[in-house]
Amino acid sequence: MKDHEKYLFDLNGYLVVRNALTPDEVVQLNEAVDRRSVSEKLESTPYFHTGFPDVMLGNSDPGNGPVDLADGSLLDWGPEFRRLIDLPRILPYLEELLKPEVRFDHAYGVFSRAGAASGVGMHLHHGGAPHDPSQSYSYRDGEIYNGLLAVSYALTPAAAGGGGFCLVPGSHKSNFPLPQEVREAGSSWPVQHVPLEAGDAVIFSEATTHGTLPWSGTTERRVLLYKYCPSFMQWERSSPGAAVDARFTPEQRSLMISPFASAGRRSAKG
Ligand SMILES: O=C(O)CCC(=O)C(=O)O
After folding, report:
1. Is position 265 within any domain?
2. Dist. CA 146–CA 135, nearest whole Å
3. Which atom of ligand 1 is nearest to the CA of 108?
4. Fewer C-beta within 10 Å: the chain N or C terminus?
C-alpha cells in the first residue's frame, strides 16, 4: 500500500483500486453470475442481496431496500468466486489494514435490475459513533487498525449520477451519530457517490457510514462484497459460510480458519 493510499484511506475511510480485476476475470465472474440466473431473478425482484450464509437472511420487503434471496454461499458458486478471497492485487491492502493478520469473514453479492427499476436504495448505516469495536477504525503508533473491512468488486460500471455505492467520507472517525439530515441527504453533500468501472474495487472500513443510492444505471448493477476481519475476530455468525475444504488453496484456507489472537500461526499448510 503506497503512502498516498494510506493517507487517503485514513482521511476518507475508503480507497478505490482501479482495475483490481482483469477484463478476463470480469468476464468470467459475469458468466458465473449468469449461470445463477441472476438476470431472470431480477425480472421479479429488481434489487436483491444473495450468496451469503443463510443466517444473514433478513429483509423480504422491497420497500425497505434490497430483498435477501437465498441461493447458497457465494463461495460455493464456483472457483471464480473462491479466487477473490486472496486476490494478489488486493491482499497487500488487507495486510496493511488488518492487524495482526487477515481473516476472511464472509462474502455475498448485490444485484439491481437495469434502468430506474429500483425505487429504493439501502439506507446509510454505520459510522464512527456510536463506537462499535467490531466495525471500528483507529490509528496508533504509525499503524492503521480496522474491525470489519469490506472489499466491493464492481462487475458492471457505475456511472456518476447513476446510483450505487455511496458513503460519507471521513465518517469512520466521526464523534457524533449520523444526523437525520445526513441520512436524508440523498446524493447531496456530505454523501458521496462512488463512480466505478467494471473491475474496480472499493476497499472501505465498515465504520465509514455507507449505503446504496437507488440504481438507474443502463446495465444491471452487479457487485461482490468480500468482508475481512483482524485475525482475532469473527463478525458473521456462520463465517466463513462454506466448508473449508480442498477446493480452497492452503493460502486461502489460512485466511479462513477460526479467529484467535496469537500472530504468525495461521498457516493451513502445517
Ligand atoms: O450496495 C452496496 O454496494 C453496499 C451494500 C451494503 O452497504 C451492505 O450490504 O451492507
Report:
1. no
2. 7
3. 9
4. C
CA of 146 to the centre of ligand 1 (A): 18
Query: Does the pLDDT of residue 88 top 80, yes or no?
Result: yes
Give me the domain span that covers residue 248. Answer: 3-256
Site to probe by mutation for ligand 1, drawn from 210, 221, 224 as the one with most ligand atoms within 8 Å of Cβ, is: 210
Write the pLDDT tens digit of every residue in 128-160: 999 999 999 999 999 999 999 999 999 999 999
- Ligand 1 centre distance from Cα of residue 110 (Å): 7
Q: Residue of the nearest CA to atom 6 in ligand 1?
A: 211
Q: How many domains does the chain have?
A: 1
**Residue 8 maps to a domain:** yes
User: Which residue's CA lies nearest to atom 7 of ligand 1?
Assistant: 211
Q: What is the 3-state secondary structure (H, E, C) of 108-172?
A: EEEEECCCCCCCCCEEEECCCCCCCHHHCEEEECCEEEECCEEEEEECCCECCCCCEEEECCCHH
Residue 213 lies in a domain: yes
The verdict on residue 264 lying in a domain is no
Mean pLDDT of the region 91-116: 95
| The pLDDT value given to residue 11 | 98
pTM of the model: 0.96
What are the pocket residues of ligand 1 if the criterion is a CB atom closer than 6 Å to any ligand atom? 110, 122, 152, 165, 210-212, 223, 225
